[in-house]
Predict the 3D structure of the following.
Amino acid sequence: MTERSWLETPIGTLRIESDGKRIQRVAFCETAEWDGSPEGLHQEAERQLLEYFSGARKRFELPLRFEGTPFQLKVWEAVDSIPYGETLSYQAIADRLGGNNATRAVGSANGANPLLIVVPCHRVIATDGTLTGYAGGLERKHWLLRHEGAIARDLFA
């Protein structure tokens, strides 16, 4: 059974889903459908997300449940290793995984990341430094990268 909670953030509402033991999805949604107080794992996830948005947290320490292909799992692991405040290109991730022709596949896997913000797919950019694609929308990607200091505050203002 999937448990859900919703969290209002500076860039929109996040829906958090878990199997009760591990967080399996963090995604932006239009509206919150639940108005109760989160408990247990969801309370901890919300606490850590609020710390991130306040600038007090740079890395999440939550039990996560990934469901994806073996290639997607490798990409998400590589994405999760990108430090706070830094970016990495799709091509660099493809190179790390041993397939310099896998840039599009990396982009596709990155776009399928079910754990937005927690697994920081917003830190993946084009080789030329431009910001491309983000399941939460490019405005949110810009905001997250500015928040982390990975891009200049006046860039994309």
Q: What stands out?
A: Residues 3-54 form one domain. Helices lie at 40-54, 70-80, 90-96, 103-111, 138-148. The radius of gyration is 15 Å. The longest strand covers residues 3-9.
